[in-house]
Structure prediction request, 303 residues.
Amino acid sequence: MNKKIAVPVDEVGMLDAHFGHCKFFELFDVENDKIVQQEKVVPPPHEPGVLPKWLADKGVTDVIAGGMGAKAIQIFNYNNVNVFVGAPKLSAEELGKGFLEKTIQFTTTVSVNLFHFMEKYFDQNVMLVDCDVEEPNDLLFFAEPEKISKKQTYLLIPEIDTDKCTFCKKCSDWCEFNAITIVKNLSFAKVNPDLCHSCGACIVACNFDAITEYEQPLGVVAHYSTGIGSGLVEGRLKIGSAMQTSLIKEVKKEVQHHENLIIFDAPPGTSCPVVETVVDADYVILVTEPTPFGVHDLKITVR
Prediction:
């Protein structure tokens, strides 16, 4: 059977986790489970619903991605394109070949299957928590999930009153994230909300009550009934935000009183969101692909 596979990639040909904003797509023409042609194409500017139709018009039958929203998957399916999410960060060639040879492990399925069998054989109240807040996709593996609750979460962002501010720069000096800019000669004082981590240090530093806080949307925490255990909780980060760790903390607060087994599905990589997800876990299962890149990250995570 003939197929056409699409893989979102970055400048060096590795899987791009940000599907909707990738630089390129690698397209593979497949005949009898063999790749016969490969082509790199530049996608159109990102707009909701554009990529599924654009790829379908190019004859794509299957898309391999690290993650993708439920709405995008529905649009792909409407255009008769299959979507496979949870792919490891490999080159497009490795993913295409591994997909055809059925050697690629889509990592999300590890936590979802663990959830299923833990409920069946061990704990009927087990809960699954999707902490991959940039691209949550555990929910896609359940046929008819029912939303139980949904809560908007916020970050408290400092705001500087220049009428009270003396431009002493003490708040700027206390900020570990370089989120505050003070220019005394121009009477300028401003907080960059994209860099602020809402730690509150600047408010403590200010001796003139010149700093207050306002709420800025961070993302959504939702709880779903899945027909298995105590259901699924996921965080979904506001598009454009870089505060993954802050939302993961809010997701974990939502389930902190759950007295039974909890499975945290961590985001990929070795950075702060992964650390925040596993920091208070009793057991950690590490999943990687059999490549030098995967082994390298695995060793970093173990250390």
Notes: The mean pLDDT is 90. The two ends are 45 Å apart (CA to CA).
